[in-house]
Write a structure and sequence with these properties.
The chain is α+β, with helices and mostly antiparallel strands. The protein is about 30% helix and about 20% strand. It contains 24 helices and 25 strands. It has a 9-stranded mixed β-sheet, covered by helices on one side. Strand 5 and strand 6 form a beta hairpin. Helix 17 packs across helix 22 and helix 18 packs across helix 22. The N and C termini lie close together (about 10 Å).
């Protein structure tokens, strides 16, 4: 078999081969060439070896990955594929062959800077990369926060800080059926919200062979096009369903002469699996990690002796927490869906592929050229007690076992439109906390403003900056009597009440609102009534972002300001004091002066530059998340934008934050950045005659 690599004007790879297996090899090859440093960092993160060259800052992550048995779970999942779906297993092996070919002799400058050479990928490595990428995606550490908040502030605090305010995951997606478009064919559009990384977390690519021809957004290091794809006659997209499918169990462990035992719900102590691993740390001594697994799952926090610095409550055993997650239980990561997705021709094909999906749990939208439409949840969510879904549960008590799997819900279209934005939609029975409804409502309202839409119109929705969640804070301002305020504060109040509530980068009013919001958050966090939750429990550092009080208040602010009572705190007084504070020293510039992009990089750039200012905010459709009370910088935002046109695939559009290449110095390393910042999209090129052939491979 043979294949060839083509490039479009943006350097995006278009791959053509004689068959699916050869095409997978080409995808692995071109990914290694374009994103070699990036995927090697991900391989190390998936194996728990990143601290060996990135330093002690990665140690807590590496320990979690080791203790959660990520690599071993990936091996199990590959073994299951080899037994039940050998074609997919062979296809993954071909991808890995291509990756290793592409990494051979790779000269990306980051390798020399880090003092590390490219390693060798194993057939299970793509599964480990996928699993580690999504290990914290379902937010199981939120259960640690709920436990902490309930213990320190009382059970009512759990609802006050619910993620219907502080959602940390997010994406937008919408489907407009043919009856609502100018062409009579559907349009599927959206933007996944992830931490913005450099290189980006999505790879624009085209995969073409006699069986299929798909353009889409791939995850570097993983074969196929799992999340966002256009196959010509059918297109699909996803958002995070916000389902709860990972459980945390408090374990009672004891050491014996033979090892470690865990107390089960039947009152019987049973042997737990145990071994030790060594984590290398650049510039420091290696760290030995005890890896324990009970019948519930791997122990990810503590152990028989608890945690360093932990003082157990009277009568409570030392802390040990086990994580139970579906791929570890079933040996299935859902990779059996990847080839059927590429081969899909109609919505029914996407639907059948979605039946095979496992993790993460997503809401899927799809449309085809025959008028078919799909709006459903895909993934595996266990049936168990409600207590499991909310907080840590005792492993030694009965009633917390898993009892099969939920059927995944489905939904339809409303007046020819479906919107998914992590809100309480079809996935509501499967989750506990969802994103606020603001983005979903705003997208639906914008789509309702006209009856006919085109693919070219969708960028205006992608870039909408209206901030509905500003209302509770502005309502507090409206309730003030002006004579009670100083003249500067009264003027600032009037200014904000007249503000259009758009978080535009060039808006000075948006900057003032953000400053007021942060001042309110900090003042609430300083209230004595909330002080018991300020000091987080002594959990590993990797969980600290979920346990910090100030960000929790920042993301839940609209709930905290509008709740009937907030632990007796005088909220009008807090807001008034914050208003006076900001009025005395208002920000001098615009929102974009401080709301700047803050992408994650494994290594600091050799040529540091000031990152661009951004429009949008956490609850805007243009979701560029600051952390109120902590920073205006945006580490999270649209990791890609796409518009799939079912009438003519070549009228589709897409863009990523940086560019197609992960190599510094490449002309395609940052050439899409101006488009991404402006809300513009690049055309999807499908005519082979318009492409430049790079090589036969």
């Amino acid at each position: 078999m043979s294949g060839a690599i083509f490039r479009d004007p943006w350097g995006i790879p278009h791959l053509r081969a004689d068959g699916a297996r050869e095409l997978a090899r080409l995808q692995g090859l071109v990914t290694a060439r374009d994103r070699g440093w990036q995927i090697e960092v991900e391989r190390h993160r998936a194996q728990g070896t990143s601290a060996s060259f990135l330093g002690a800052g990665e140690l807590s992550w590496d320990v979690l990955v080791r203790r959660a048995r990520v690599a071993d779970t990936a091996r199990r999942c590959l073994a299951r594929l080899e037994a039940r779906d050998p074609e997919t297993a062979d296809w993954i092996r071909a991808y890995v062959t291509g990756v290793n070919e592409g990494l051979d002799g790779h000269d990306a400058p980051e390798f020399a800077r880090a003092g590390v050479l490219p390693g060798r990928w194993e057939p299970w490595t793509p599964l480990a990369v996928w699993l580690s990428t999504h290990l914290l995606f379902a937010g199981f550490p939120a259960k640690l926060w709920r436990d902490h908040a309930a213990a320190r502030l009382g059970s009512d605090a759990v609802g006050l800080f619910a993620a219907d305010g502080p959602g940390t995951s997010g994406s937008n997606g919408w489907l407009v059926a043919g009856e609502r478009t100018v062409t009579g064919q559907a349009v599927v559009a959206g933007d996944p919200h992830r931490f913005i990384e450099d290189p980006g977390v999505y790879q624009q690519i085209r995969l073409s062979c006699p069986e299929f021809d798909v353009v889409g957004l791939a995850v570097p290091g993983v074969p196929g096009i799992a999340h966002f794809g256009h196959a010509g006659t059918v297109a699909w997209a996803i958002t995070n369903a916000m389902a709860d499918y990972q459980d945390l169990y408090r374990e009672r462990l004891r050491r014996t002469g033979a090892g470690i035992e865990a107390l089960g719900p039947d009152g019987v102590w049973r042997r737990a699996a145990r071994h030790t691993e060594t984590v290398e740390v650049a510039g420091e001594d290696p760290v030995e990690v005890e890896v324990i697994e009970t019948e519930r799952g791997p122990v990810v926090i503590g152990g028989p002796e608890g945690l360093d610095g932990e003082v157990p409550e009277p009568g409570e055993p030392p802390l040990a927490v086990a994580l139970r997650y579906p791929p570890r239980v079933t040996g299935d990561l859902g990779f059996g869906a990847l080839l059927p997705l590429l081969r899909a021709r109609r919505v029914a094909d996407v639907d059948r592929a979605a039946d095979l999906w496992a993790e993460p749990v997503n809401v899927v939208l799809a449309a085809d050229t025959e008028g078919g439409a799909l709006h459903r949840v895909a993934g595996r969510v266990p049936v168990r007690s409600d207590a499991n879904r909310v907080r840590l549960v005792p492993a030694w008590e009965p009633g917390h076992e898993w009892r099969g799997w939920h059927e995944t819900p489905r939904a339809g279209l409303d007046d020819g439109v479906a919107v998914m934005a992590n809100q309480r939609g079809p996935a509501a029975p499967l989750g506990v906390e969802f994103a606020p409804p603001h983005r979903a409502r705003r997208i639906a309202a914008l789509l309702a403003r006209r009856h006919r839409w085109s693919a070219a119109d969708m960028a205006a929705i992608h870039t909408d900056t209206h901030l509905a969640s500003a209302a509770p804070l502005l309502d507090h301002l409206a309730a003030f009597d002006a004579p009670d305020l100083t003249a500067p504060a009264s003027a600032l109040r009037e200014r904000l009440l007249a503000w259009d509530r758009h978080m535009d980068a060039d808006s000075a009013d948006a900057a003032v609102f953000a400053a007021l919001r942060s001042a309110v958050v900090r003042r609430l966090a300083a209230e004595p009534a909330l002080a018991p939750a300020a000091a987080p429990p002594p959990y590993p550092d990797v969980f600290r972002p979920w346990l910090a009080l100030v960000p929790r208040i920042g993301f839940a602010l609209e709930h905290l300001l509008s709740a009937r009572d907030l632990f007796g705190i005088d909220r009008p007084a807090v807001v008034r004091a914050a208003l006076e504070e900001v009025a005395a020293a208002p920000p001098a510039g615009t929102w974009g002066d401080t709301h700047r992009l803050a992408p994650w990089r494994a290594l600091p750039p050799e040529d540091p530059r000031e990152e661009p200012g951004l429009s949008g905010d956490h609850d805007c459709v243009l979701c560029t998340s600051a952390v109120p009370g902590v920073t205006d910088l945006a580490a999270r935002g649209p990791a890609a934008r796409y518009v799939w046109d079912l009438a003519r695939r070549e009228d589709s559009r897409w863009v990523v934050p940086h560019g197609a290449s992960g190599r510094p110095g490449s002309p395609h390393h940052r050439d899409q950045q101006p488009l991404w910042l402006a809300g513009d999209l690049a055309p999807v090129v499908t005519d082979w005659a318009q492409l430049t052939k790079e090589s036969d491979v």
